Amino acid sequence: MFVAYDQNGKQVNLADRKWTSQKLEQLRKQTVFYCPTCTTELDLKIGTIITSHFAHKKTVGCSAMKSEAESEYHRIGKLDLYEWLQSQKDLEHVLLEPYLKELKQRPDLLVSVGGKSYAIEYQCAAIDGKVMNKRMTTFYNADIEDIWIIGAKAIKRINAASFTLTASHWACARYHESTLAPSIISYCSTQKAFILLQHIIPFTNRSVVTNVKKIPLQNALIFDLFTSSSFTKQQQKEWINKMKHYRLYSSRYKTKETGHLNQEIYRRNLTSIAYLPSYAFLPLKANYLFTSPVFVWQGWIALYLSELRVHEKFSTQRIYSFLEEKITAGRITSRKVYKINFSHYHAIDSYLITLSRLSVITKIEKNMYSKHRAMYWSQKTEELLEEDVRIIQNYLVYEKEEV
To answer: What gap in Å lies between CA 145 and CA 186, rounded to an integer?
Structure first.
């Protein structure tokens, strides 16, 4: 930790630029330091190789001790963010590691804008979901908005437009109660730059396609972190590549969920899961509302529609009920997203609307559709790969209008 109190109750902030190694040596000889959270005595660790910081003298059950396990990458990043926030003109107050006694929370940073408080957490390690939800709920109940910035090196990059995200990363994502896809703010204390993952579309529960934007810290404005983007051509290319890889190597994607879907496809004599129609791979903005791979939850709906006669009517409620049965049976998994009112039903609605725009189904009236034409199940890989490109390109014509 960087902030402590001396024996007179005065705050000592090691992030202040006034502290040289010599001044810290002198301070350590003259002063006793105490933890703002548990009030026990602290040691002042003066760094030559590592950043100077405070640490507890004894092993005690203090929540602030989590900061003592922070890596040097984390500590430097926190200091970078503190100094950067102080340079932002629109911020009224910037506090480093403030202990909020009423909440029993100590965010990395606390800033105020227009009378509204924002807790900023720089998260460089995995965090238990229950612990994170508790912290989020505490901030929310106190009318403090929490903003999570991930240590960039904790996110595995596959290529220019693809990353691997863990459950912790998804918990740190920013979700929008609109049609916007999720985004993630990350910061690299080595490169001194923000790396923003915008318009994140999951292909599987871990593999995502995203638009990456890098902003050097010295050039960044705080509002730059919250910008959005549309689905880019680079994302389109990567999404089609993922579809191709799946078709060629579907055995590498084996899970219980894919196994159940594959069994049902075989039972209905519709080839195999590797030959799912291209319409089961649409990169919807709302795909994140399912943890299951895109081709699993969309694949079940495609399978359902394949069984209908052309011009046969069906309601959205029938599709809801059909997928709810699969969720209950463990065939599909939805994602619970904190602080937004959307559920996986929104993703289903979005999928049906998109299929109607692609002329697979026809919208008759509110919450009522009919099957417009048969969904083609090919057994020829090359044919399907060509169809994949065509369908994704057609989808992107309507992507800006997606509800």
So the answer is: 17
Assess contact for 313 and 291: CB atoms under 8 A: no
Residues 375, 360 contacting (CB under 8 angstroms):
yes
Whose CA is closest to 99, among 156, 162, 34, 47?
34
The b/e string for 330-342 (b: 16+ C-beta within 10 A; e otherwise) is: ebbbbbebeeeeb
pLDDT tens digits, one per residue of 302-355:
999 999 999 999 999 999 999 999 999 999 999 988 777 788 999 999 999 999
| Angstrom distance (rounded) from CA 161 to CA 111 | 32
Domain count for the chain: 3
Residue 374 has φ and ψ, to the nearest 5°, of -70, 145
Residues 225 and 253 in one domain: no
Instruction: Report long-range pairs for 24-28 (Cβ below 8 Å, ≥24 apart).
Output: 24/52
Question: Who's near 87: CB < 8 A, 6+ residues apart?
Answer: none
Q: Are residues 357 and 252 in the same domain?
A: yes
